[in-house]
Amino acid sequence: MKPEQQIENAMHDPYPHRLMSSNTVIGYLNLVTLLASIPIVGAGLWVAHGGSAAAATCESALQAPLLAIGFIVLLVSLAGFIGARYHVTWALWLYLLAMLLLVVALLGVTVFGLAVTAAGGGRPVPGRPYQEFRVTDYSAWLQKRVQAERYWRPALACVVGSRACPRIAAWTPLDYLQHSLTPIQSGCCKPPTSCAYGPGGVPVQPQDEDCYRWNNAPGILCYQCDSCKAGVLEQLRRDWHSITLLNAVLLVLLIAIYSCGCCAFRNARRADTTAPYGMSKINPRWDYFWSRWWNGQREQLY
Questions:
Q1: Up-side HSE of residue 252: CA atoms within 13 Å toward CB?
Q2: What is the pLDDT of residues 251-265, one digit of tens each?
């Protein structure tokens, strides 16, 4: 085959399209995550400006995580999309570095979440469909947090703001025999089932300290009981466990995207210096086509 024919075949070889397949995949993936980060940031800003209504509930605690996650995903996805779509090597390098940090951080959070939520759970109450909880059943890290006043005070405000207790305020003793309770309702809205009270609501014998802390007043109830703290820990453990499982799935997805990003970075480096059959080539910068279009419009005007 003549050299001229070899060059012509090289110029029309489909290899470059195969070479850029990973760039296309990573570009589309990051475009989706880029669009998905917009409502996350919007939700964080909405919570931040929600006023006193948001501050009275648990939603205010979501403000910082929502904004942090939204902006990180936005910036990382933008760098990955630009780098893969326009073959910007330095943008892909920053993207891979950020993705690596995200994977490491998410791995640490997932392992820590599994370790923290491993202990705990409810104790069945004979003849009742609900469970009761003890603070000592949970991990030492969670026990320290719930015993510290600076952590327990906002958690208690969250419990009161959720209005879990008013929902069962009109229950009769028969309702407690037939219906289940959430961990917060079981620990904060009623005394422990083992408590025995005489006339005037006074405990008739030495028993659990929570029996003495209980008060039928709507603003007191068992909010200062250890059982209430245990109910909050159980609800936290369940939610955290669900989030940890979701983090594990997300971790696998991020590792897959990171692998595609590595291929895209390699392709971008190769596209800058090489062509099929070993021929060297020089690619235009990512903004070359935009500047060419703009110059063409200027020439038409003048």
A1: 5
A2: 787 787 777 777 766
